[in-house]
Amino acid sequence: MATIELTNDNFTSHVESDDILLVDFWASWCGPCQQFAPTYEAASEVHTDVTFGSINTEEQHELSAAAGIQSIPTLMAFREGILVFAQPGALPPAGLEQVIAGIKGLDMIDVRRQIAAAEGEEQDGATG
């Protein structure tokens, strides 16, 4: 599966509809981004059950700002609409494979439980 271009217009729909969405924030002038691109593209061919998206930070300023991107490349991963991974820096192929395996192996029931517990603590702290 080829990498798809994510924009302000289609980002939210992909986050909400794709089971696993990896997002590479990059720019054409960024050397590490260019080095990471073939690794990312190769992984997209192997993991056809994962959606691989890319966001050109030069063209998608609002989206990059909303995601809090301060360094590129940055890799983010969403699983079932939940941000489960975010890390700046280019990964080697083995590192990217490890990240993908970790995301696929997540117990999303447990993830949702942890989110609910954290939100409950925030609400308790706000009222207490």
Automatic annotation (TrEMBL):
Pfam families: Thioredoxin
Annotated SUPFAM superfamilies: Thioredoxin-like
Listed GO CC annotations: cytosol
Chain ranges of the Thioredoxin domain: 1-105
Keyword Disulfide bond tagged: yes
Coiled coil: none
Keywords assigned by UniProt, alphabetized: Disulfide bond
GO molecular function: protein-disulfide reductase activity
InterPro entries per record: Thioredoxin-like_sf, Thioredoxin_CS, Thioredoxin_domain
Name of this protein: Thioredoxin 1
Organism for this UniProt entry: Nocardioides psychrotolerans
